[in-house]
Specification:
six-stranded mixed beta sheet; 324 residues; 41% helix; 15% strand; alpha/beta; four-stranded parallel beta sheet; 10 strands; Rossmann fold; 14 helices
Amino acid sequence: MPRPLIERFRQVLPVSETTPVVSLEEGSTPLLQAPRLSERYGREIWLKWEGANPTGSYKDRGMTMAVSKALEEGAQAVVCASTGNTAASAAAYAARAGIPALILTSEGATGEKVAQARMHGALVLAVRGSFDDTLAAARALGEDGNHVLVNSLNPYRREGQKTAVYEIVEQLGGAPDAFVIPYGGGGNTASYAQAVSELGLQTPIVSVQAADRQHTIATAIRIGEPAHREAVRAADAMVRSVDDAEILTAWEELATLEGLFCEPSSAAGLAAIRRGDVPGARLVVTITGHGLKDVATADRLAPPPLEVEADPDAIRKAAAGDLQ
């Protein structure tokens, strides 16, 4: 039976026997070998499929910790700023804990992610402004004593997120030559760096950002000023930039070659590998969120269905590319 992440990694997390565990049985996500991508790019590529978490993104790893510790410390409510994934996760775990969640979404948050938060009963406010503006407001609310901030500025969030590295090393039977992850706010890079240090590894972290942070199609990493920029520098992460065309090409390859439908931001790591920006022969690429987080973009960019008559011959012709 799956175990809550906190129970599985209790020995490396800042919890006690009295910490109330708020869990949706997150973590323990698959590490999938990518044979077709490996053959195409001459590397041994593995995909850490974080879209398999309960709300569809890696955020659940940190949220179980943030909300559990908030409850332990007597919190009455939580608050976050979000482009979408944090919103869905915070709302779900707050609902699980039985406390209110205040969600501040910024411009560009997808309807699917916001719908998740709304379905969990959170109060969702669409803030006029960028993610940076929204985060500033959430931080102020978190400082007034009525809400606990559960963005990655919350140190417990990062503690939970570091467990992905522990899982990868366990599943792979050792460290890869590089961990490759998307770079939005930088909290996940800081988390990975913490785990790398705790495990005594020398494995580099390659953090891949959108070339145009403010306007990228990859909404989950559409963050102009990363809150953890200094932590990323301190970790000596290799920061790489890819444009939207490269992200979308990698996004399509993950879906058509390996069967993984992820949100566009999750393809940033593969995009960097495609352009030769990642060193090493054995690479683990973290796929941070499910494609159902951004169905509108998939619907807009994927090939449309073809209409045919309900006739076997017509269907055969269409399947052979002979549609008249």
